[in-house]
């Protein structure tokens, strides 16, 4: 699979406790992205954060250490990301979703002429 140099980064901000059909939302999103053959997805877990409610989520305070912030990043073509956004909309009740244009410098193993 190849990604063009000009691509789109989809960034999804959710909480660790968010669910979709009784499974963790982050897991459902990554599995759906894989099923739809998007180039790749990564889930990043944050030690501290807050969202629209301004409620602080952190690992520093034991009673607040649940529902830590997660960021899911997916990079692919504009067309594939646009198609995935429709699916994502049906999976998320809340959260923040951002898009930005990126340049892909390397994806996978270098080509033989780069070795």
From TrEMBL:
InterPro entries: N-reg_PII-like_a/b (IPR011322), N-reg_PII/ATP_PRibTrfase_C (IPR015867), UPF0166 (IPR003793)
Cross-referenced Pfam families: DUF190 (PF02641)
Entry similarity comment: Belongs to the UPF0166 family.
PANTHER family documented for this protein: UPF0166 PROTEIN TM_0021 (PTHR35983)
Protein name (Swiss-Prot/TrEMBL): Uncharacterized protein
């Amino acid at each position: 699979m190849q990604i063009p140099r000009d691509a789109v980064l989809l960034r999804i901000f959710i909480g660790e406790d968010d669910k979709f059909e009784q499974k963790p939302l982050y897991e459902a999103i990554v599995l759906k992205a894989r099923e739809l053959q998007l180039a790749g997805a990564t889930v990043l877990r944050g030690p501290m954060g807050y969202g629209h409610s301004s409620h602080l989520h952190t690992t520093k305070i034991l009673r607040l250490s649940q529902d830590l912030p997660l960021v899911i990043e997916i990079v692919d073509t504009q067309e594939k990301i646009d198609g995935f956004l429709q699916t994502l909309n049906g999976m998320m009740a809340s959260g923040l979703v951002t898009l930005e244009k990126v340049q892909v410098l390397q994806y996978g193993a270098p080509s033989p002429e780069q070795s």
